[in-house]
């Protein structure tokens, strides 16, 4: 079968970095303590509704099919396992998204989409030509400059590398779909390569931020820097990836 892709990639590491591999093979599910206990169902629903994943009428305190479907959509957008189960990972991602909206709306960023946040978003919408309903759906988040999906996170960073989305994003999408399916917690079971860009060892991404184990923004920032430094563009990285068996870049 040959050497697994991520294992082969480790052979390029300097000796000092390779020495970190053993310690990085097992990455904890969440490497940082969480700021919140797991939300009540009602708070989960309130946050999902605030971001436009669930209708306001769906805030009923019951973890039913509509709530699970809304959560699955949110999980897909944010690089999480799409299981409809609300735990630490989904809570962390959901609070981060709410906090990003709150900062743009000029209200305290506590991660909870309460009445104050809804009113602040409504005011922001009214001042920026948006329908003033207080819901930070896709259009409002786009107008705020807040990335709603991991794909949008990557696209928002292209300019820093001199790439255009039209020319390069298709290649990046295919590359990281093949590597990790764009999942934040993806771990190669044989090598321990980790995250959306499948860094080996995972803690190399510390260069982009201490929250590398659970933050897609940090992982993507590191991954794009790696691609830029080694290949120049995502399409060149993807072309190389396709020629190797098993695939690696």
What does this structure look like?
By secondary structure, this protein is mostly helical. The protein contains twelve helices and no strands. α6 (88-105) packs across α7 (115-127). It is globular and about 50 Å long.
List the helices and strands and how they pair.
Blueprint (H helix, E strand, L loop, with lengths): L4 H6 L4 H4 L2 H4 L16 H10 L14 H13 L10 H18 L9 H13 L10 H7 L5 H8 L7 H16 L35 H15 L3 H10 L6
Main features:
disordered N terminus; Muramoyl-pentapeptide Carboxypeptidase, domain 1; 249 residues; mainly alpha
Any idea what the shape is? Answer: globular
Give the beta-strand count. Answer: 0
SS element count, helices: 12
SSE class: mainly alpha
Radius of gyration: 19 Å
- Count of spatially separate domains: 2
Helix content: 40-55%
Rounded average pLDDT: 88
Low-confidence stretches: 1-36
Work out the strand percent.
under 5%
What's the N-to-C terminus distance? Answer: 18 Å
The topology string of helices and strands comes to HHHHHHHHHHHH
Please outline the major beta sheet: none
């Amino acid at each position: 079968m040959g050497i697994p892709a991520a294992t082969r990639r480790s052979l390029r590491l300097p000796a000092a970095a390779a020495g970190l591999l053993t310690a990085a093979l097992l990455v904890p599910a969440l490497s940082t303590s969480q700021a919140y206990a797991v939300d009540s169902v009602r708070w989960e629903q309130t946050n999902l509704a605030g971001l436009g994943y669930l209708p306001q009428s769906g805030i009923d305190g019951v973890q039913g099919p509509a709530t699970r479907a809304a959560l699955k959509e949110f999980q897909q957008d944010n690089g999480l396992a799409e299981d409809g189960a609300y735990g630490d990972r989904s809570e962390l991602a959901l609070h981060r998204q709410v906090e990003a909206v709150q900062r743009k709306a000029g209200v305290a960023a506590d991660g909870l989409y309460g009445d104050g946040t809804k009113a602040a978003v409504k005011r922001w919408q009214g001042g920026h030509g948006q329908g003033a309903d207080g819901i930070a759906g896709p259009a409002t988040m786009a107008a705020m400059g807040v990335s709603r999906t991991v794909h949008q996170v990557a696209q928002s960073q292209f300019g820093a590398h001199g790439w255009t989305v039209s020319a390069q994003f298709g290649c990046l999408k295919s590359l990281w779909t093949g590597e990790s399916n764009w999942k934040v917690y993806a771990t190669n079971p044989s090598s321990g390569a980790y995250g959306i860009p499948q860094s080996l060892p995972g803690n190399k991404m510390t260069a982009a931020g201490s929250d590398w184990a659970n933050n897609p923004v940090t992982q993507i920032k590191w991954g794009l820097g790696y691609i830029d430094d080694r290949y120049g563009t995502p399409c060149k990285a993807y072309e190389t990836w396709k020629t190797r068996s098993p695939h690696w870049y």
